[in-house]
Amino acid sequence: MVKFDETIRSATHAIYDGCLKEAVRLLRLIYDGHPSLIGFEDLERVSRDYVTMRKFMLKGYEDPQREQLYDRLLHDLYRIIANLVISWRCKNIEAYALAYHTDNHLNRSHDFIKTVLELFVSDESLLSLKDSHEQKQAAESLYNRHQTFMERLFCALFISLQWTDADQSFFENLLISPLISREDALLITSALMLATLNVYDERKWVALTNVYLRASDGQLRQRALIGWVLTSHPQTDFFKKQQAIFDSLLMNANTRSELLELQKQIFFCMNAEKDNATIRKDIIPDMMKGSYLHMGQFGIEDKSENDLTDLLHPNADEENMEKVEKSIERMREMEKKGSDIYFGGFAKMKSFPFFHVLSNWFAAFNLHHPGLYEAQRKVGDGQLLNTLVSQKTMCASDKFSLVLAMGKVIDHIPANLLEAMKAVKDFDLLSQEETGRVDSPTFVRRMYLQDLYRFFRLWPKRTQIATLFTDQDDRTFFLCMPLFRHEDSATLKLQLGSFLLRHGMYDRLHRLLATMDGVDGGQQLDFLRGCLCLHDGKYKLALDRFQTLMANGHESVALLRATAKAALRTGNYLMAYNCFNKLKSLEPNNIRLNLNTCLAALKIGKVKETLNRLFELYYKFPDDLNVQRVLAWSLLNSKNPSKALQVYEKLLTTKPEAEDFINAGYAHWLSGDFAGALKTFNLYPDPPHIIEEFEKDKELLLQNGISKTDFTLMADAVDEEQQS
Q1: CA torsion, points 465, 466, 468, 473, in degrees to nearest 10?
Q2: What is the reported pLDDT for 517?
Q3: What is the C-alpha to C-alpha distance for residues 648 and 646, in angstroms, rounded to an integer?
Q4: Angle of helix 253-269 versus helix 489-502 axis, rounded to 10
Q5: Which of 70-79, 296-305, 596-605, 700-709 has the least mean pLDDT?
């Protein structure tokens, strides 16, 4: 029996390679004995046309349209395969089968769809003419009917076959029509994205690009942008129309800017789990400490009734409030930078039956949604729900979750807490000055991306469809796709490269720069490649790149920092010193730069200059631990172990790091205090590897008369102490 997936994959590759005959042969294996399968007659037509074309060529007939005809036949074969795949999935893949069942043979005629969508808007506007009781009943009936229709339409589009030109034109005009609701247009756009993501359809893709270009509504435009970007096909040589349209889109400066921001936002979105861990481990515990609540045996409990608190800690209220405010500010800052601060909190709230409906994952939030009726009836207080969902930084999916969850727990919330919740005007993390940005394209994109992220990470049947938001998926890192071969793409990639470097995303930077081989990216590209070398431990190569840039007259702050680091790693301490000196002149009050300059100066023998500067810093910043470390190390290297020991003893009473125990041990050792050295070395967190630390600092030790044999003996003594 023919393996469907494997055969389809091979036939598709044959098409991309231009091997029409081979593709036909492979497809016949599937249709053999199954002529009723969708596309059989079309396959026979393509086969006949191909044979006719070949006969004409062999008879010597000239046909200027032969290339175009052959290409058309290849695309006809692609449409056959795409439709065959959808038909097969509807019978064999649960996610598609459920969509097929929900679709339930919906009337897909353009006139019918248009009439239903426009009639809904008309009927909705007439609701205000009815009295309150009649209005409520009519509204529920209207929204229930419309919700059922939209669920069916969404599924119908998700499993729809390859479009015709008429389909493309109809839906383009429908989506930008002022006669249908924005919520419906947004949902249909998401359906087209989901369909094209799973089985590419060039006409659906083109429709998304045209909606992006033509739509006046900001939310619709951004949803269409995300749609066509994330569904772009990598086979640009085959889908030539896609490449041509894309190149024209990239000519627009605003589009290039939006693409760059979208790529950054996707990476922030993919950090949701990491951000959630930070909130769970760091921020939430701090908030709990600063409140009158604590985690007790029976959950979160009130601890305000401790009558000794006010007596023992009269300023406790203010201090606690400050802690809470600081925690909220940390979350606000994370949100401003693009972090998805709610993912972790709402991830477990996607098991409601509401989310069993595929389209609900993509729906714009609306309290009129029939899936919320039961929760609303339980809560009763409409103002409370409005307050809860007023959070502007919360995506639609989470707002739905919040309302549904409130409906489940409303009966268990203490009356005093419920009253307090009602009294709060809103729960928004945004300051008044920041609220203006919620309508910006950037913010709109972020909210929709978070909705998508939840779907592709949490939908129970996500493994049955194409994936997004993984580093293994090329569409997630779309700037690396072959589509971006336009000359303007180089600038975009360099800008993204600088972003990736700033945020330490070196794996992604590697992938990005790999697409720029042979590209003239100038000094910025050379700098990024040098930084990658530096990160990968190729210090000599990195330094060579940086020196070449500096020799050509480039001397930015970033280049000086990178060169200094590479110079230190390669032992070129004079160059490191010169770079740090230049940086220090630009930022004279930067403690870190001052310390790095001192360390480099020490390496080139400027002992007196180093110590004088360090004592100045120590006088100004006596509690700065890094100043103490560098001063003590410099004293140690200038053969002043007793003075170094004084500083190390102070350092060890604060927040010592592992290296502090090693260096303090050296100070004892070089002072002749072997017992003190042994005692201090025993405080080192990784005693079995202490000999490796001695080897790293062998130059210092050997210069002070401590031999390699001494290394071994001291390491053995430490090991013996640990064993006893």
Answers
A1: 150
A2: 85
A3: 6
A4: 30
A5: 296-305
Q: Which of 24-28, 56-60, 301-305 is predicted least confidently?
A: 301-305
Alpha-carbon distance of 546 to 529, in angstroms, equals: 10
**Domain segments of the chain: what residues?**
4-92, 96-231, 641-724
Do 381 and 422 touch, CB atoms closer than 8 A? yes
Helix-strand-coil percent breakdown of the chain, rounded to 5?
70, 0, 25
Q: Name the β-bridge partners of 354.
A: none
Which helix (DSSP H) or strand (DSSP E) does residue 295 occupy?
strand 293-296
Provide the sign of the torsion angle of the four alpha carbons 36, 38, 44, 47, taken in this order: negative
- Rounded CA gap, 613 and 602, in Å? 11
**SS3 annotation, 666-724:** HHHHHCCCHHHHHHHHCCCCCHHHHHHHHHHCHHHHHHCCCCHHHHHHHHHHHHHHHHC
Q: For residue 538, which phi and psi values (nearest 5 degrees)? A: -90, 70
pLDDT value at residue 390: 79
Where do the H-state alpha helices sit in 410-505? 415-423, 441-458, 489-502
CA distance 496 to 705: 52
Distances (CA, A) of 36 to 31, 40, 87, 92, 225: 8, 7, 12, 17, 38
Query: Among residues 525, 532, 609, which one has the least CA distance to residue 566?
Result: 532
Which residue's entry shows tokens 């769970």? 280
Q: Which residues have C-beta within 8 Å of that of residue 346, sequence separation ≥ 6?
A: 397, 398, 401, 402, 454
- When pLDDT is averaged across residues 506-515 and rounded to a whole number, the result is 94
CB proximity list for 588: less than 8 A, separation 6 or greater:
none
Helix extents (H) in 570-624: 573-586, 591-603, 607-620
Instruction: Name the more confident of 160 and 412.
Output: 160
What is the secondary structure of 227-247 as a DSSP string? HHHHT--S-TTT-HHHHHHHH
Token pair 């930077």: residue: 509
Q: Are 242 and 461 in contact (CB under 8 A)?
A: no
The mean pLDDT of 654-675, rounded to a whole number, is: 89
399's CB contacts (< 8 A; 6+ apart) are 365, 389, 391
DSSP state of 280: I
Contact status, residue 391 vs residue 427, Cβ threshold 8 Å? yes
**pLDDT-derived band at 307, boundaries 50, 70, 90:** very low
Q: What is the DSSP letter of 363?
A: P
Cα separation of 103 and 125, whole Å? 27
Residues whose CB falls within 8 Å of the CB of residue 642, separated by 6 or more in sequence, listed in order: 667, 671
Q: pLDDT at position 263, please?
A: 96
DSSP bridge pairs for 302: 293
> C-alpha 37: how far from its chain's center?
41
Number of other CB atoms surrounding residue 8 within 10 Å = 19
Give me the DSSP letters along 501-565: HHTT-HHHHHHHHHTTTT---HHHHHHHHHHHHHHTT-HHHHHHHHHHHHHTT---HHHHHHHHH
CA 558 to CA 442: how far, in whole Å? 28
Please list, residue by residue across 350-366, b when 16 or more beta carbons sit within 10 angstroms of its beta carbon and e when fewer do: bebebbebbbbbbbbbe
153, 113 Cβ separation under 8 angstroms: yes
Confirm if 433 and 210 have CB atoms less than 8 A apart. Answer: no
Closest by Cα among 260, 453, 499, 470 to 340: 453
Q: 362 Cβ partners below 8 Å, 6+ apart?
A: 154, 186, 187, 190, 191, 194, 451, 452, 455
pLDDT tens digits for range 628-647? 889 888 888 888 888 989 88
Q: What is the dihedral of CA 669, 675, 622, 616, to 10 degrees?
A: -20
Per DSSP, 463 falls in state: G
- What letter does residue 365 receive in the DSSP assignment? P
Phi, psi of 304 (to 5 degrees): -75, -10
